[in-house]
Amino acid sequence: FMNRNRLELIGFISVIASLIFVGMEISQNTTAVRGATNQAISDQASELYLTIATDRNLAGLVKKLYDGVPREDFDSIDDMQLFLTVMTGLRRVENIFLQLEDNILDDRAFDRIGLSFYRSTYGRQIWKANKQFFDRNFVPFFEELLDKK
Questions:
Q1: Per-residue pLDDT tens for 47-66?
Q2: Torsion of CA 137, 139, 141, 147, to 10 degrees
Q3: How many CB atoms lie within 10 A of CB 125?
Q4: pLDDT at site 11
Q5: Measured distance CA(35)–CA(137) in Å, rounded
Q6: CA angle 47, 63, 125 (to 5 degrees)
Q7: Are 145 and 110 in contact (CB under 8 A)?
Q8: Do the Cβ atoms of 52 and 59 come closer than 8 Å?
Q9: The pLDDT of residue 142
Q10: 119 Cβ partners below 8 Å, 6+ apart?
């Protein structure tokens, strides 16, 4: 009788220890996934910046964007190049939002996205003309982010 109670106690303690171990492993895995995701976001931003920095024409277009030049003042080729650059950035921001929704990231990820790019006259024109192609939950979230000062 005493041995049976002792075995049950040992079994109970083993189950609890196993659950604690599994919980710690899940926590470590979650931390690793968040770290890798944050690194991927930084890599994407760096790649976009490097693309702009190493293409003199694109750098000039982005300067015009920051100077407030509206979309209609760009020729069709320059507009296409800048449009695709802005859309690439918008998709990156949408991806961050989706990962926030899935609790992979927290809202600090939005501190590094360079909102002035999207708040420019050109950026807002692109957003307004294309927002219907983005996740329906992302649209109001992004618009609120754009309007925050």
A1: 988 999 999 999 999 999 99
A2: -170
A3: 15
A4: 87
A5: 25
A6: 90
A7: yes
A8: yes
A9: 96
A10: 146
Measured between alpha carbons, how far is 116 from 145 in angstroms, rounded to an integer?
Answer: 11
Distances (CA, A) of 136 to 73, 78, 85, 132, 139: 30, 29, 22, 8, 6
Identity (one letter) of the amino acid at 22? Answer: V
Q: Is the dihedral of CA 11, 15, 21, 25 positive or negative?
A: positive
Residue 78 CB contacts under 8 Å (≥ 6 apart), including other chains: 57, 61
d(CA 142, CA 101): 13
* pTM metric for this prediction: 0.78
C-beta of residue 93 within 8 angstroms of C-beta of residue 116? no
The Cα–Cα gap between 127 and 133 comes to 10
Query: Treating both helix axes as pointing N-terminal to C-terminal, what angle do 76-101 and 138-147 enclose, rounded to 10 degrees?
Result: 110
Q: What CA–CA distance (Å, rounded) separates 77 from 81?
A: 6
